[in-house]
Fold these 2 entries.
Entry 1:
Amino acid sequence: MARSPALRRFVSHPWVLGVLGILTVFLVWWLVTSSGMVDKLFLPGPGAVWMAGTDQFQRGILVADAAASIKRVFIGFMISAGLALPIGIAMGTNRTICHFLEPLMALIRYMPAPAFIPLLIIYFGLEELPKVMLIFIGTFFFNALMIMDAVKFVPSELVETALTLGGRGLPILTRVVAPYIAPQVLDTYRINMASAWNLVIVAELVAANEGLGKRISLAQRFLRTDEIFVGLIVIGLIGLMIDLGFRFLMRRACSWAN
Amino acid sequence: MHLQVSQVSKSFGEGRDRKLVLDNISFELVSGQFMALVGSSGSGKSTVMRLIAGLERPSAGTIHLDGVPVQRPGSDRGMVFQKYSLYPWLTAAQNVAFGLSLQGRDKAEIRERTAYFLDVVGLADAARRLPRELSGGMQQRVAIARALANEPKVLLLDEPFGALDLQIRESMQEFLHDLWKRTGLTALLITHDIEEALLLAGTVHIMAPRPGRIVHSVDVQLDRSDLRHLRVSPPFLELREELASRLRSLDGALL
Ligand SMILES: Nc1ncnc2c1ncn2[C@@H]1O[C@H](COP(=O)(O)OP(=O)(O)OP(=O)(O)O)[C@@H](O)[C@H]1O
Ligand SMILES: [Mg+2]
């Protein structure tokens, strides 16, 4: 390896290293399961998991489950992100609003969202609303507080320059503050989307008719560890795609910030 | 144009934390004049400028621009900050156009004026570049063009070259002097650097800290046809040394 710089450069590329890391885990997994050291019921091999996955896919449940989970996350997170933006900006620009809301939000933020599930079920039953609400509760306060921070760190020179150039009020918000915080807002959404995605699974584990979390809890009842693994891997993959999507959007929309 | 600063004082803070930062500052600035404020750190130079810009209000005294009291920031007083303050997501041209477009000027007019002022600062070729693709000196020239594009009555420069290294600073001083000669702008320059003040300004005010006040003023009469030559000419060096020793004695009195 030391003698081939090209190979070394290839191997030390972050993407190549990342794929190697994942492959290593798969290899260990395959070795452990195919050696017969562990009970198949306990830890199914990659092959069995793949079979279970293709089976679910062919029966259409995999796509239906994924769609159900994604839809809940999408609706809950859209509401959370949409409300957090104006409220976060208001808190970041107005001291009174900030002093009024920040302690409250900081408090609620530390209440674990899953602990709200029993209440939500009592209030809203077992349908979609409590799940969407859970995602909202679990992400809104983080979104708003992180956007507030982004606004507070807008350099005062940028705002004051706009003032001395004849700007006032709303245009300063839309043309100075908004573009400046855009990369951080996208990053905030990216980070909190991960908890939204976690929460939907938790909600479905508790009560749901369909969804990736629901499938996992069903699989547990029938001791189908292979299906549990399918669920986990699909959840991870979808989460990763969402994350990459946000990163792509950020590179596209905010190339100046790189 | 007539800017009148009369007996302006400024304090920050309340109660026991109240601190007098400017004490009874007065001066006048008229069309075409280039004035400099020199003083050590904390002598309140930036505060004077922020008061004129309307970013702060005086605690006492008044500031009038053409007889009208200054109440708030406005496009008739352009400002350039020490820290690079270009909008990083806008190109050089879009930065220059920013003020005009904030004021909702006509598109064709904006285009024309932007091109003109980029040309004035010698950056016509850099129109499409983002700030991070420009050197520090170029960024400050864009910031100056952006302020000038509004055709302000007075240009306020708060240590515009403070962050640049020495060589670039010297060429920027020559650039600014040349710009002043060509356009006849009215400028108030803040600087730490006595040499910079003497090279560029017709009137130099020396400020002392705690509380900030003007302790000495000089009208500078020097032949500015060749700045490079001026920097090393005996009358210039003499004047520079005189002001430097004044500043030193001020600092000494405080230690
Ligand atoms: N918003 C503010 N609140 C409280 N104190 C302030 C504020 N702005 C300035 N000061 C104080 O006023 C004094 C003068 O500050 P100013 O920035 O005007 O000085 P300066 O001469 O520009 O200094 P420098 O050369 O370091 O830029 C300093 O002691 C500073 O701490
Ligand atoms: Mg200052």
Entry 2:
Amino acid sequence: MSLITAENVCKDYHTGEVTIRALNDLSFAIEPAAFVSFVGPSGSGKTTLLNLIGCLDKPTEGKLTVSGTDISLLDRKESAAFRGSHIGFIFQDFNLIPVLTVYENIEYPLIMVQNIPAGERKNRILRLLEAVDMNAQKDKYPDQISGGQKQRVAIARALVTNPKLVLADEPTANLDSKTAYAVIELMKKMRDELQTTFIFSTHDQKIVGEAEILFTLEDGFLKSRETRGGGA
Amino acid sequence: MGNLFKIAVRNLLRYKRRTILTASLITIGVVFVLVFISVSSSFKTMMTGQITDSMLGHIQVHRRGYVASIDNLPLNLNLKPDAVKKLDDILAQDRDIEAFSPRIKFGGMLSNFVETTNIRLNGVYPEREFRTVPLLASRISAGKKTLHRGEILIPALLSRGMGVKTGDTVVIVATNQDGSVNGKSLTVSGVLESATGPGGRDGYVHIEDAQEILRMPAADVSEVAMRLRDFGRLESVRLRLEGLLGSDMNPQGKPLFEVHTWEQLSPFYNIARMIDVMTFFIKLMLIAIVLISIMNVMVMAVYERIREIGTIAAIGTLPGKILSMFIIEGFCMGVLGTVIGNILGGGILYALNAAGITFDFGQQTGLILTATVDPADVAVLSGIVIIVSVIASLQPAFKASRMEPIAALRHV
Ligand SMILES: Nc1ncnc2c1ncn2[C@@H]1O[C@H](COP(=O)(O)OP(=O)(O)OP(=O)(O)O)[C@@H](O)[C@H]1O
Ligand SMILES: [Mg+2]
């Protein structure tokens, strides 16, 4: 079964009198453990689509199923709970919690979103700290580490709840190209280890090359879907 | 829960200056209220003590109607011996009553054979009177602190005005209930400094001398004053006495006795009430300070952290958790201000007491201020401040918990 299925998904934004159709009749499926990228010019609808898949917003028309759940049917609280248990998020601006250390930032979803016992928490966090190579920095605060390091912490935070799906809207936009590349490589490595589906959006052509499945959006339409070599 | 506190405390530390400013505002308020409460309540207690312990007693029982015409000391409204006996039995058995003293109050003329003036007198059993109003003895500024048959304690004003000293002989002349006049010579055994409040300028004679002057075969008592073991039980004792005495009717079918506490007998009770009202408004002011300052800080805290709120909401933090996160922050701020305020306030009270500040009340000068504060008052005050802090955080916290994650994340 596909992890994500979209059937004729449309999304309209209303600003005053004007209605903008940000997504137009999208239908597609994404399989588990895929490494997917959404590309397209600015305003093409990448963020809008990621927000829908991330259960942060609802489609205006059509049906979007994530992990077997029709996300239109969830209310506010159920959406939050669904995100907490099924989806990991990586943000363009890293969005770590400034008052928590690296370790505590990764721990946050395990305490505040899920309710994982202390012993289990520690195992998971230490494993991920190792995997993203941030063990030495684990007691530092976000303002004491670099952008690339922040994004590595964010990847660990997104993965710590063992989600099936991780969404990353322009995760490398605030990083230099070398660091950006390393971050994407890390995501891919984690996908290989944990079989988590990653979907990220990007402008960066070099980064695009790393995707195994490429969705190209234009003016809210799904222009093309390509499968690249080396895909899972 | 622990994690919520950790996050709240760290967020407070993140904006140190603002936290310190807000907490100090609360601290200042708490200190101010604490000092005010304790100084005013000590003043009140002392004032009440002066009034009740030097003259009034805590509760007085009269024949019905006496208090209404108390100023002309009506002998025809005295309690008859059988009523006095009954009252005696009831009061003697009451475990709340430490002492009680029957008094015959009457007006008369005081003469030193040169001058004559009018005087109000109390005929008392000296020992019982001294136990009922313990400050009476301390008011005797010259002479012995006792009173025997054939002796009189005269108020300082008359002593000075007429040049009467202890050991002098004076004559008391009074009209009795039947209208006939009688006199008796007495030796001045002491001079009484006046006390604030009704009866503060009265003289004292032995009750048997009073009976003799007024030609009473048995003591017709004007009032019975009593002192309670626990002043806090004033109202409940009054109610009980009213219940016990209420069943006694006079021949006209009206209750025979009336029971009054000092509050009903002294105009100073209104000052005590005013102090309470002032205390209430000062507490109200503190509540306003806490409410506004905490709300202000929390509104700012939420506004500054919109993107953070968007992040934690996006990754699945439930609205209730976000709500508690901000409420706990307000709570911690309130606790911080309260704790520092209580410590500082305690210190200031200690310093005030150590300084030995004195003040005057009525004729009493050099009363030492002993500012004490009831731990229960501190607890209630702290509780109020903390609860108000939580209430003040509710609206901003609620706003934070209702934020749409996408909108919050897009916020710049
Ligand atoms: N909250 C909103 N209200 C109104 N219109 C919106 C809103 N969010 C997005 N849009 C519009 O929807 C369209 C798609 O926007 P979206 O943010 O998804 O584009 P994008 O591909 O992510 O662009 P970029 O590469 O610049 O991030 C745009 O025309 C945008 O103006
Ligand atoms: Mg975008």
